[in-house]
Protein: V/A-type H+-transporting ATPase subunit I
Amino acid sequence: MIVPMYKYSFLVFHSGYQDFLKDIRKIGVVHINDKIKEPTPEMQDLFRHLTEVSKAIQKLEMIEPEATEKKPELKTGEAVFNRLKEIEKEGEHNHHQMQQLEKERKQLVPWGDFDWKMIEKLQKQGVEIRFMSCPIRKFEPEWEEDFYIKVIKDWEGYRYFVKLEKTDKENEENGFEEISGADELILPNHSISQLDAEIKKLKTEADELRHELHRIAYFCIPLLEEYYQAIEQQLSEKNALLQTSEEVEGKVKMLEGWVPETKKEELDNYLEENKILYTADQPSDDEEKVPILLKNNRFAKLYEIIGKLYELPNHKELDLVPFFAPFYMMFFGFSLGDAGYGLVIIGLAEYMKRKMPNLRSVMKLAQLLGLATVIFGILTGTFFGIDLINSQIPWLENIKEYMVDTDELFNLAIILGVIQILFGMVLKVINISRVKGFMYSLSTIGWLILIIGLGAVIGLKTVGTLDEQTASVAQYVVLGVAGVFILVLNNPKRNILMNIGAGLWDVYNMATSLLGDILSYIRLFALGVSSAILGMVFNNMAMSMKPDNVIFGPLVMIIILVIGHGITIFMSGLGAFVHPIRLTFVEFYKNAGFTGGGKPYKPFAEPASKISE
Structure:
C-alpha cells in the first residue's frame, strides 16, 4: 500500500532557521519539496564529486581485500579518496613508462646486450657506428666488400648489421655513404640490462601500489562510505537552503515538504513544543509532486525491488506490488518448473544470506521463487530433467495421478493468464474510481461483465446446467448490459453519440489486445517445457558420453551433469526471471490501468537515518 502523505509548510524566524534545519534533519521525516529544479554550481560540483566517490567505492568493492597487520595511514574518507586518485595516477604513469621501456627493449633485442659506453668511446676515436637493417632477401653480399659491415643477427625476416665509418678528413670520401635498400636505425641510448632493471623496478612499484590498494579495500571502505554520506549530507543541506523562500523582507523563512502519515507524530510534537508556525494538509487532486512511500507486509515487501524496476505508482492509485507478487512467484515456478533446480536455488540463497547479510531480503525472495519452482516441479513431475511421470518408480505411482502432462500444462498457462488479466481489470475499476470517480469505471465493468458473463454462460451450457434456450437468453442479457456500459456509459461527461463512437473504438482495441495478452502467457508453458527438455538432454548426454570405466565413467558423468545442469539453471532461471516481469509490466499493469510516475520518498535526515530507511 501507499502511505498517505501530508504537505507541510513551515514559517520560521530567520535567526532560528539554521537550528530548525538541524532539528528536522535529526527527526528525519521531512521530504523537502523541490520547487527549484536547477542546482547551484556549488551543488553541481558536489554531485560530480559524489559520483566520483561512489565509483571509488564500487572499484574497491570489486577488489579482493588483502588482510594484513600493515594498516594504511589514512584517517579520513577524504584522505582515502585522495590517495586512491594518487594511486590511479601513479599506476597510469607506471603503465605508460613500462610500455615505453618494453618498446625500447624490443628495438634492442636483435643487437644483444651491448655497452653504449664502448660505442661512445669509439666515436671519440673517430669511428662512427651506424645501426642498419634490411629484409634478408635484399641484403647484397657485395656490401661487405664495398663497406666496413658486420652482420649482427637475422631476426623476424630482417638482417641487422652495423656499418663502421671513419670521421677523419683523410677518409671523408669513404665516410657516411648511404647503402641503397638499407635503413638506418636510431636505437635507445640504453642497454638491455639497464632496461630490464628499470622494468623490474617499475613492476616492483606496481606490485606495491597493488598491495596498497588491496589493503585499502580491506581497511578503508567504511571510511569512504562515511565520506560519501558526508557529501550527501552537504548536498541535502544546500538543497534545503535552495528550496527555502524568504518572506516579510527576509525576516521569515518558508520551507515546504512532505511527511508520511505514519511518521508525523514526532514532528508535530516538536513543532508544537517550539511554537513553530506550520500547516499540514493532504495533497490536492491536481498535486503531482507527492513522494511515494510503500508499506507492505513481509511477503509483498520482498517484491518491491521488482516493482521498482519499472516505476513507482503515483499517489492517487493503488500500489500493485501486493497484487502481482503471488502471480510473479507462480510464474517463476511455472517457467523454471524443476523441483531439483528449485532446491538448488533455495540452498544457494541460504548460503548467500549468511555470506552477504546486506542481500538478505533479495535472498529471501530467491528462496520463495525456489519454493515455487519446487512446487511446480512436483506438479509437472520433473526433477533435474528426469521425467517422473514416465519413470517406473513404484512409490510414485499413487502421486502420478495428481501430476499434469504437457497438454494440461498448456491449458493451465492460459487459465492463469485469464485470471491475472481479469484480476487486473478489477484493480483498474478500483484505480479509476479512486482517481476519477466510479462513473468513469463503468466501461471496464462492462468488459468484466462481458468476459465473465459469456464465459459463465458457455461453461454452464457445456456442462448441461443451462439448456439451449435459457443459455441464449442469458447471452443476450449479458451482451445487452455489457453493451450499455461499454458503448453508452463509458464517459459521463460526453454525449451519447460521442460515447458510442469512442466505445466502438474501444471494442476494436480490446478485442485485438485481449487476445494477444492472453496468448502471451503461453510463454510460461514454453519456458517450463524447454527447461525440462534441456535437463533431459544433459542427462542423456552424461549417460551416453561416459567412458566404460569403473572409475572414470561415473566421474565424467558427474562432471557433465554438474556443468550441464548449471548451464540450464542459469539460462532457464534468467528466462524465468525476465519473462514473468514482462507479463507483469506489460499485460498486468496495462489491464490494471497503471499510470506510474511516482518519485521515491527521500527524507531530509542524518546519514544513520538514511541507512535505516
Summary: The longest strand covers residues 5-13. Residues 171-175, 609-613 have pLDDT under 50 and may be disordered.
